[in-house]
Amino acid sequence: MTTNNAILPRPAEAAVQAHSAGLRKELGLFDLVMAQILLVIVLDFFGTAAKAGSAHVVFWLVAFVLFFIPLAMVVAHLNRLMPLEGGLYEWARLAFGDQVGFLVAWNLWLFVMLYVAVIGLVTTTFVAYALGPAAVWIASSRWLIFAVSSALILAMMLMSALGLRFGKWLGNVGSIATLVTLLALIATPLLNLWRGTLAEYHPLRLVMPPLTLFSLSVFTKMMFGALSGFEYVAIFAGECRNPARNLTRSVLITAPFIALIYIFATSSILAFVAPESVDVVGPIPQALRLGLRSFARVTHVSPLLRDMGSFAALIVPLIIVLLFVNYPTSFSVYFSASARLPMVAGWDRLLPAWFTRLHAKYKTPVNSILFLGIVTLAGGAAALIGVGPQEAYELLLTWAFTFYAIAYLALFAIPFLSPKDHGLRPRLWLRLAAMSGFLMTLLYVVLSIFPIINVESSRGYSLKIAGVVLGANFLGWMIYRAGRGKKCQPA
């Protein structure tokens, strides 16, 4: 910790570390690698990327250079300097002050609250794909969607209260299930090509995208939505073993692998689904069902291939169920991390001490978990009012990731805008990388108001996005100012 003592104000660092000392140190390098895979590979944005059609490879490559690599570099840099519970919230607070830190935590918290709220929509969509055409009604029943959301959010609250001793194994299982299913998706067009049921397949074809507002909007959504997340695990720094080393190593280990997964999995979806027909809620089960269904159609082949076709037809529902495991497990990690933010803000006396109270046995912030669960349920219910499931899903996803992007503006600003006497500014090449990430994130925020699916009213959709984001941040600022006007009780 000598690096920290030389750079951070000793009282600020010591206070956070003193509170963190009471937390269980549950996460090792393997757990962190699994968590990075689970959080950075965001299944929702494969559908967004597929909307780009054949141009997706060029989009991915540009996104890797201008956003993904800079993100990995900046997160590695900041984590080495400040391996503190609270992650980005503490980085921003120590760089820019309490007000910016509070608003960063507020936006991160809103991101998870709204993102987790889509779990009912995703679950019912996956169940509908697994059961077949007769179950299509499941994905459009608002009451069923809300009931499923409620049950799963309650389960996440329970798992979060039990702590990372149990939660990390759930996350590891989710990561493995995700990798197995994505590898099956990547293999599906190759198997179809071998059998002759797919005429051609060029996963790395370079096609220049059209210069339209729609294509630019698709690019920014797939760039930020799919490639963000490396810093989120750092919220658990106080519950990691050797966080300065292991969190950084987890980023460097997973980044190249994640990049390849995104390119080849998107190509696999487009091998079976036209861009305009992609189901943005469930693109992977949609592609798997279409890709593996063809195995049962060809009969003039060898007995071995006929057996493979029968087997493929039987395992489609199982693969879809396996893929679905990603959602409750990744959302559970997000939920647990988000519950730490009010706790750490309470340590810093930016929120009441009520949020800092830990369970006597599991050392988890039970009051913060309870509060997050209640507002998440409310957010999921509100989004279903007056719109169809796909539009509700797109609204929740866009609101969530726009809040997330606002926090990222602070993340990328630290290397080149933090006061020089704080010692957080790196060398010029890393400052330039941070500027690239900042500009790409800003572009995403500006274009987030434009829908990439058919909605009842484009203007109404844009007003909903902008109004909620601006209004929520104004509310966060008011809460901060009100809190500063009172003397919060120390944790």
Labels describing this entry:
491 residues; single chain; 19 helices; Amino acid/polyamine transporter I; mainly alpha; 0% strand; disordered N terminus
Task: Please give a structural write-up.
Helix 7 crosses helix 19 and helix 10 packs parallel to helix 13 (283-293). It is globular, with a radius of gyration of 22 Å. Helix content is 71%, strand content 0%. It has 19 helices and no strands. The protein has a single domain, classed as Amino acid/polyamine transporter I (Up-down Bundle). The longest helix is centred in the middle third of the chain and has 32 residues, at 164-195. The two termini are 24 Å apart. It has helices spanning 2-7, 10-20, 29-40, 44-50, 56-81, 88-96, 98-116, 119-131, 142-162, 164-195, 213-227, 243-270, 283-293, 303-324, 326-347, 366-383, 389-417, 428-447, 458-484. Residues 1-9 have low confidence and may be disordered. With 491 residues, it is mainly α.
SSE layout and pairing:
Elements: H1 2-7, H2 10-20, H3 29-40, H4 44-50, H5 56-81, H6 88-96, H7 98-116, H8 119-131, H9 142-162, H10 164-195, H11 213-227, H12 243-270, H13 283-293, H14 303-324, H15 326-347, H16 366-383, H17 389-417, H18 428-447, H19 458-484
Helix pairs in contact: 3-10, 3-12, 4-11, 4-12, 5-11, 5-12, 5-18, 6-7, 6-17, 7-15, 7-16, 7-17, 7-19, 8-9, 8-14, 9-15, 9-16, 10-12, 10-13, 10-14, 10-15, 11-18, 13-14, 15-16, 17-18, 17-19
